[in-house]
Every structure is written in C-alpha cells, then in structure tokens.
From TrEMBL:
The lineage of its organism: Eukaryota, Fungi, Dikarya, Ascomycota, Pezizomycotina. The keyword Endoplasmic reticulum applies. Keywords: Endoplasmic reticulum, Membrane, Transmembrane, Transmembrane helix. This is Signal peptidase complex subunit 1. Its main location: endoplasmic reticulum.
Length: 102
C-alpha cells in the first residue's frame, strides 16, 4: 500500500527539464527571490513592521518554490537528442583522446 502511494507520488513529481529549462529556472528563482526581498524590505521599512516584512519574504519564497520546483512543461521545450545506447552505437566511430569508444 505504501509502496503504491510512494510510486504515485514519485510519478507525479518526477519530470524532465532540459538545459534551457534549468537556465530559465535559475533565472526565475534569482529574479523572484530578489524582487520578494526588495519588496519585503521596502514595505517593512515604510510601515515600520518587521513581521509584515517577514511575511512578504516568506510569501515570495513560497511563490518562488511553486514556480521553480515542479517540472512544468515550459521547462522542457528544447529536449536534447542523446546518443543511442552502447549496443546500438557500434555504427558510430567515436574517438575520445585517441581511443575508440562505442
């Protein structure tokens, strides 16, 4: 029972993102966390309320988590074409540092 539930959760959260998607996720996390920090600081300073500033920072972190962590489909728009498995790669002559590979 627990194994089936764990497998369903794993299937739901396991996803593929490509290299461009990784770059986009990193950029989004940097921008969103930076904007949340600046907004939290400014609002906290203007209102003189540290609790409000912390809540805004926490909300910005939660928003960043929701945007960046799940493998959304827009993170896999440029998938890579990898080499075939070793047994199918025998038709390719791949040379690495003077040694034949594959």
């Amino acid at each position: 029972m627990a194994d089936q539930l764990l497998e369903q959760v794993r299937d739901a959260v396991e996803g593929q993102i490509d290299f461009e998607g990784q770059r986009l996720a990193e950029m989004l996390s940097t921008v969103l966390l930076g904007a949340a920090g600046i907004l939290a600081f400014l609002v906290g300073y203007m209102m003189q309320d540290i609790k409000l500033a912390l809540y805004i920072g926490l909300a910005g972190s939660a928003l960043t988590f929701v945007v960046v962590v799940p493998p959304w489909p827009f993170y896999n728009k440029n998938p890579e074409d990898w080499l075939p498995p070793h047994n199918a790669a025998s038709q390719y002559n791949i040379d690495v540092d003077g040694q034949k590979v594959g």
